[in-house]
Design a protein that fits this description.
Chain lengths: 779, 779
């Protein structure tokens, strides 16, 4: 039976936002081991277990009063309210800034084109884009690298219990907001929904951390919030608020978090998340009312994207099902191919990014210039079309957004490609979703825009700037849907605007593999519930098809970043392994009364976060498992020098010296190491009585339990450590510790390569095409 | 340290649908103990744990092939599809039957009134109502008592792991469908949504049970479905389909299950539930298309309730917030008072129902006659109003539903109360929700209808017939909302139809304490997403206010029925108790090789469902915990007479004699007792080797663990038994077993009455008004 230690530092390290080196490292065990003892701060797991030791029990008893509960409840809801309020404000601010910056840019360029100064127009367009992009790239690369990308995978990992460094810092928050505004305004083909979600999750985390000493904001009430569980709940609410603010979709926001982000859910949380998004909705509503009076610059009433597909008589019949099925199938294929390409591109980008920061910036510059060329150059390929008669809209629309961009055309003509390319993404989507515009676009224009948008989206995401994936996917999907609608021609009676909505749904679900939340978000965006059955159908088909080929985009990004993400289900072969098959040695244990020197040595030589404590004679009759102690608690003890002169000294009253607050987890504590603590040689010979600080009731499993069953316990109760006890009494009362790394398929297959390949047929076709689908379906 | 046995038969027994005797029994421990050994079949818990013994491991290995997984996946999705299909069909059938039966009744009566035969009209109306009601009551009382009421609490209990007898039987299904049609058609003030949910959950459960021998439908593929986990998942999907079918609200259905019913949730389930409700939506859509051609009798296009509040310009501003807040506060108070009254009325009804079945029927007769009198008599109190000019609708509307009922009025006049009372509930709600009808109703008419509807709803629910609560609450709420709108007068610019929607939301959330699902269902019903922020606001306020006073309606019904429902959170005082404080003796254990006579004796004298198996010398060095064996498995062994002649006989190859299927749980097995098994005296002296049948890795906790922490494990992993092991090695390797009953607050407070009262301040104010709210809020 293998004895093992909690090899927690055998963790992929987060070198860079798009780092994949750890994935490579994880794929062979030698390089993985080489990471042990690395000085880079490791990704920490979070503690969601109820930690029971004498000290905290005492603390809990002391605070069991009525007033404390009121405080706690009030605080919880106040924080949710604040998260909602701030999210609403940030959402509004982001939108208004982007609309105004991008708007001014487009107005200036359009005016130059009206005066036939085409080269000047291009120059201004390209240079302003480049400047904005450079600004975003520089602050991201130099101030907060963690702010790059959408941030959704990081939030998802956090909710799973993985605490990547700097993800929720104040620096990251500021860079994310400013960088996102700059990047999106620079006409880069990226969205603002993902960064918005990260921003609001960040706000939630910072609010929950206000008790931290680091920011000098300690407030007595907040001490009840110094635990990972409440923080996770608040971050969950914050993430929902982000989607609500980005899409003005409060229900969709809650569902997105529930479906795609959250690893654990309670119905009480549903209510609180819902409250948060309701606050966001009300705040946004109030701001929009305010902007109706025209005080918000170029920001109009449609400023927060909201596409009214209000063709009152959206009607469809069973005969419309076949085109919708085709749409779903192709959407699924396109979506999974999108993920495939994105994966490859990100791997290439990572190699470039790893060289040094200048390369990152160079890549961003290339991206920006290429985008500007596409957006300005491609519309010239389209021929000018005469304005249709009998429409209420101005044609060509000058100095404002609209379906009919003049671009280089003669009066009374418009350029249909320009109204797609030379516009903000929001306006383009609005144009594509608009009903009754069957003839506004040329088939080849739509095709060209679709291809460009598809690849620009893939190329733009990995650049070093805050960038979301939602908007490019919605946009590309809408174009694809309209294209299918055009190709169907008279075979379908559905409106092309409706086709565009369905196309967005199919690509979203094909790429991100969301189902319910896509439906709800699209319904909230388009304000048309009658679409629901069609959207549902297309979403289900698209996801099923896409699942045949590869993983969803977030899972893919999580793998790329090397997070030890704990899946909701165990792999089938885990039912045939016992926990003793995966625990590997050596196990480090502490005695109930342990020598300071030993503790320091163990803390210095390992990176483990938890150690079993063994009760020995004379404290108990024989060797028994007394409990589990955390590294962070040992560090507090060493720092406070709570030492005994000999093993049998009477201990002083511990409750006078410590309060529960001393052990409450703070941000600032996280990165304090053993190195900071200075101890004399004399102190090293002293002892610590660990009794009052040990969690006396850790969850345990018997060594013969199958890995799948232990996985279920580990995941459902959100554990960080799981002790393995022997089946039959033996000399050692504990066999090993399981941490989340022991459940990683990568780790298990490294330990049992032969067994896996030979015995288990399931495993053989794990990577085959078909099983991918079934893994999704059979849960 | 108390040694205890799994006192599983100390369970409230389900004597009757509305039985409260067990609640009384549970409140003092002597009468509770008196129930032990009772012959009434007990409520069983369900097994959601992965059960690991040699036999099943072997079985799992054998079926690990690719084909089996395909079968399993295909089966899972096919069953979901079938549940959706059947649910859609049943939903449509129910609606069409109710519309036609009730429609014919109203048309006949109205025609008589047109001919001035008022007494005849009342006679026909009252007698037809009475006949329908009697039919519903008789089949419910004599054929399937479990079909009475809404069935939602039973489904909720099932998803929590409580398997009440006959809840999902075929008999119950048929009675529920037929009885619901009869009861709702009889103009009783009950809804059809709750019964619909029970019906579809029943369909799901029966489909998952098709493998059962009882119905002779065993099919080899279905054996993978013979476990409680897959059944629960399918029932979850079925419940969502019910709400989807009742309200044509597929997203609302999924959310309702997620928020109000389900105790456990996985994102994979979200997808499947969503698929099921999508199928329902498509099926309903197809049927409605079919009915457009007029082939469905009186069933029109609005037949499935769907209230279009399509005032295109629903606009509201911050100034509309105060009336909405008032609406929410009063709605919360009314909702909680509704629950309070319903609780009292149900208790009285229970006392009456317990006498005998004739009393049940008598009560139903009284209810029906009283309702008929109200519906026919009260409209006479209203004065006739002249028809408004310039409306497109016919006035008075004759021979069809409409806002303007002629009733007893002169031509060109209408009776506004009659259009509320003398109508199907669906039509009344449609009238109340209609926009731009500020002057159609008199203030006092609305008030009278509100009061009548409020109390009729409370009085009607407990009658012995399938009856839902949704519709009465929606209806009463809509009236209340309109009343508030009228009282506001010119102070608010909101439409009265909108006020009605908000009123429904406030009463629904005040009574049922749903949040997100109410919002979504109302949005799907009214097809107007712009209402969202207002609905959210009103729902949140209303729930918060109502939580101050009492429990939600489903929790109240669960308590009334005496189900041992396991809450999602532990009570605060549970943190201060250890598991050893609640385990009570005596513990019955089995040896690994046990004498048949002992097993029979234990099975006869206890009702426990699980027994610890102890490994003894010579099978192990010392007494160790070998595992846990289930009563049902022991019964299989006894029935198959898998006996050894002596304790040390070599065991035959068990895998030849048994397959996993023998132990798969079947409906028919559930109620087979030990009494059916005939054993000779010789056989009683033989032995059974329990090794291959024992679950060798049951979840265990150490006796010093707090009850709250054990509760979390028990609930999150959905356990049925939790073994308690000693902290320090002692003679007994197991201290006790925890079952869900040990976590019931009732049980804990019975064991520790003094401790609770004296030491724990938290507990003292558990029942106070304010803490009720906070218990809801602080989770």
């Amino acid at each position: 039976m293998a004895i093992k230690d909690a090899a927690e530092e055998v963790e992929p390290l987060l070198v860079d936002h798009h780092s994949i080196d750890l994935r490579r490292a994880a794929s062979n065990s030698t390089s993985q081991l080489a990471l042990i003892g690395s000085s880079v701060s490791p990704i920490e797991s979070l503690d969601f277990e109820i930690f029971e030791n004498e000290l905290l029990s005492q603390d809990w008893r002391a605070r069991g009063g009525r007033a404390q509960i009121y405080q706690y409840v009030l605080l919880k809801w106040t924080l949710c309210f604040l998260v909602g309020l701030f999210s609403g404000c940030v959402g509004f601010f982001n939108n208004i800034a982007i609309e105004n910056i991008a708007g001014v840019k487009f107005v200036v360029t359009s005016n130059m084109m009206l005066a036939n100064k085409y080269m000047w127009a291009f120059g201004v367009f390209a240079v302003s884009n480049l400047m904005l992009m450079m600004f975003a790239a520089v602050i991201t690369a130099y101030i907060a690298p963690a702010a790059a990308g959408s941030g959704i995978p990081e939030v998802k990992a956090y909710l799973n219990g993985i605490d990547a460094p700097e993800i929720f810092s104040f620096r990251t928050l500021v860079v994310k907001i400013v960088g996102c505004i700059a990047a999106v305004s620079s006409s880069l083909h990226v969205g603002k929904a993902g960064p918005m979600l990260h921003t609001t999750a960040c706000i939630a985390s910072l609010l929950a951390h206000t008790g931290s000493h680091k920011y000098g904001l300690t407030w007595r009430w907040l001490r009840y919030f110094k635990n990972d569980r409440d923080r996770r709940d608040l971050v969950t609410c914050g993430a929902g608020a982000g989607i609500a603010a980005a899409f003005r979709a409060p229900i969709g926001g809650v569902l997105f978090v529930l479906e795609s982000l959250s690893s654990r859910w309670r119905s009480a949380l549903l209510w609180r998340a819902f409250f948060t998004t309701a606050v966001v909705a009300v705040v946004l509503r109030a701001f929009i009312d305010f902007c109706r009076s025209g005080k918000c610059g170029l920001f109009g009433k449609g400023g927060l994207i909201m596409f009214d597909v209000t063709a009152d008589n959206v009607s469809y019949h069973l005969s419309d099902i076949p085109p919708v099925i085709i749409l779903g199938v192709i959407g699924g294929i396109l979506g999974s191919f999108y993920n495939f390409l994105l994966d490859k591109v990100l791997q290439i980008y990572t190699i470039i990014h790893e060289k040094n920061r200048a390369f990152k910036l160079l890549l961003a510059i290339c991206g920006s210039i290429f985008t500007s060329c596409c957006l300005f150059g491609l519309p010239w390929l389209a021929s000018c079309r005469p304005c249709p008669g009998g429409i209420s809209e101005a044609c060509p629309s000058i100095g404002r957004s609209g379906n009919f961009k003049k671009f280089q055309c003669a009066p009374d003509h418009y350029n249909d490609l320009a109204s797609l390319f030379f516009n903000t993404n929001d306006d383009t989507v609005r144009n594509l979703y608009s009903a009754g515009t069957e003839n506004a676009f040329n088939k080849y224009s739509i095709l060209l825009f679709f291809v460009t948008s598809y690849f620009l989206g893939i190329l733009s995401y990995g650049l070093v700037a805050p960038s979301g994936l939602f908007m490019p996917v919605i946009l590309t999907g809408a174009t694809y849907g309209r294209l299918i609608g055009m190709l169907m021609g008279s075979k379908s009676t559905l409106d092309h605007g409706l086709f565009a909505v369905l196309g967005s749904a199919s690509l979203l679900s094909g790429s991100m593999r969301m189902t319910v939340s896509v439906c709800v978000i699209l319904l909230e965006l388009t304000n048309n519930l009658l679409l629901l059955p069609l959207v549902m159908l297309v979403v289900l088909i698209s996801k099923t098809v896409a699942d045949c080929f590869n993983l969803g985009i977030y899972e893919m990004l999580l793998r790329l970043k090397g997070f030890p993400f704990l899946q909701g289900h165990a792999e089938p072969y885990m039912r045939q392994l016992t926990v003793s098959d995966v625990v590997t040695g050596p196990l480090r244990v502490l005695n109930c009364v342990e020598k300071v020197g030993n503790i320091v040595h163990i803390l210095e030589t390992t990176g483990h976060n938890g150690f079993p404590v063994i009760g020995e004679p004379p404290f108990s009759q024989m060797q028994v498992l007394y409990g589990l102690i955390l590294r962070s608690h040992l560090l507090v003890l060493l720092r406070k020098k709570y030492f005994l002169s000999s093993r049998f000294s009477a201990r002083t009253n511990v409750f006078d010296q410590f309060s529960g607050d001393d052990f409450a987890k703070c941000v600032s504590d996280r990165h304090d190491g053993i190195g900071d603590i200075v101890l004399t040689a004399e102190e090293m010979e002293m002892f610590i009585d660990l009794h009052p600080f040990t969690n006396t009731s850790p969850y345990t499993v018997v060594e013969t339990m199958s890995l799948a069953k232990a996985h279920m316990l580990f995941r459902e109760v959100s554990l960080r450590h799981l002790l393995v006890i022997p089946k039959f009494p033996s000399s050692a009362p504990v066999v090993g510790i399981l941490t989340r790394h022991d459940f990683m398929p990568q780790h298990v297959t490294n330990l049992h390569p032969f067994w896996m390949r030979g015995r288990n047929k399931l495993f053989q076709f794990r990577n085959s095409t078909v099983i991918n689908m079934f893994r999704g379906l059979w849960l």
